[in-house]
Amino acid sequence: MSDDSAKSSSFRLARGVSPWLLPTAAAAAASALLTGRDRRWALAAVPLSALTGGMLWFFRDPDRTLGQGRILAPADGVVQSVDPWPDGRTRVAIFMSPLNVHVNRAPLAGNVTSVQHVAGGFLPAFNKDSDQNERVVWHFATALGDVEMVQIAGAVARRIVPYLTAGAKVAQGERIGLIRFGSRVDIYLPEGISPAVSVGEKTVAGVTRIDHG
Q: Each residue of 157-175: pLDDT tens digit?
């Protein structure tokens, strides 16, 4: 299922993008105005305008029609791995490329019990050692018990922006945070719940069901 499958007609930008977007857009506008006085400014105006357009695309935040399922995908991307965990849970890792929507969503309704930032490296998200990257670990108290989700920064994505704090009540599919320029999001399915997705399958945050009913 593509990102476009659940978009509304309105265009929304993700929260937390202004430190990146505003300076770039301002520089593009200034260089474009100066081009009218001296065409040599076009050497700066053209790439800055292209970069601004790229950021507008990268940081889009489309509305979604909520999918059906107990657990929905927290991120747009491609399933990188589906691994049984020693404690009986199953980890589903979703790789986000720079072309995906970067806003992550709550996989199911509940209460946020913890949001923990963990310092680490910035290896490419497809690297097997990227588990030790900079990351934010979420825990949700839900009807299925404790559910863990991890936002992992990558080689390009070096800033994770949580939208919620511990104690917040969250609805399924609600926007909960942003990873700038994409990376990886892991969701741990509780013991006894089998995955409904496989490696290589595309996911849409808040839409794709990832558990078997």
A: 457 889 999 999 999 999 9
